[in-house]
Amino acid sequence: MRDLAERKRRQETTVSVVIPARNEERTVANVVSAIARLKAETGLVDELVVLDSDSTDATSEVAAEAGATVFRAREVAPELDAYPGKGEALWKSLLVTKGDLLVFIDADLTHWGPHFVTGLLGPLLADPGTRLVKGFYERLFARTDGSISADGGRVTELVARPLLSLWWPELTGVAQPLAGEWAARRDLMESLPIPVGYGIELGVLIDTARIHGLDAVAQVDLGRRGHKHQSSHDLAVMAAEIMLTAQRRRPDFSPSAPEHVTLRQFVREDGETRQVSRPVPSAERPPARSLRR
Question: Which helix H or strand E contains 117, and what residues bound it?
């Protein structure tokens, strides 16, 4: 840790930790407070920011009390309108933070540690050629009976990994392509288009490797990670977002492809099966750098 702080000081580099959050009042305080202590004790973190993405609970208030600077994503640059979604929150964070290095940490973590931040910073401070750092870990899954297994990451295994194996085999060595804990240089993030939803992690990974090569990507073993799990129906929307993000990065993608995508699902209630339709977030924000021009 002392070595990292010294490297940061010598390089005159600044660090922003960004936590996207939506309705995470039960977990966000623990995440924020641990990073706030790291910030106070080591000087490795210059900014600790929570981007609240349309929460309807006390996420913003709890995060602020725990030590974060809180922005509501919808209120950042309102003249640019707003989309719901994780990618939108991270894109908006580029407009309100100043750090040369950006560390992204999810707000719903239940099993983790502040070493997530230091681990992700390490490769960026050690090698100027590293632009993107992906965390990987044993992903814990809480079963309905309360037991814990290392069987998390369902969308990674069922969607992201098959997509990479089929279309980008050079990226199959990335252990957790959808990891919510990752870090990047600001100049990289501001140069890329950003999907507004859950496609952001895969999109940034593919774009970084395509533009800057595999040597620009590093990964770090962060140990174990536990977090809140979503229902299968919600994961299906996430999967569709990720598939659309991947499709758009194929060389044969047609610009005339439909802009609005709907996922049709079936639910059974009161003994009857009915169809429900859910929109798939499909927009992508332009590179933040273009706004300055």
Answer: helix 115-126
* Residue 226: Cβ within 10 Å count: 19
List the Cα angle 116/118/124 in 5-degree steps.
110
> How many domains does the chain contain in total?
1
Phi, psi values for residue 138, rounded to 5°: -80, 120
- Residue 18 and residue 30 in contact, taking contact as beta carbons nearer than 8 Å: no
The parent domain of residue 87 ranges over 2-140+170-228
Q: Return the biggest CA–CA distance within the chain.
A: 66
pLDDT digits (tens, 9 = 90+) for 232-277: 777 888 899 999 999 999 988 876 656 678 888 888 888 899 998 8
Q: To the nearest whole number, what is the mean pLDDT of the chain? A: 91
Which pairing describes strands 261-269 and 148-149: parallel, antiparallel, or unpaired? unpaired
Using only C-alpha atoms, the chain has a radius of gyration, in whole angstroms, of 19
How do 182-185 and 148-149 pair as beta strands? unpaired
CATH of the domain at 64: 3.90.550.10
Q: What is the mean pLDDT of residues 132-147?
A: 73
Cα–Cα distance list, 234 to 46, 166, 240, 263 (Å) = 35, 25, 10, 11
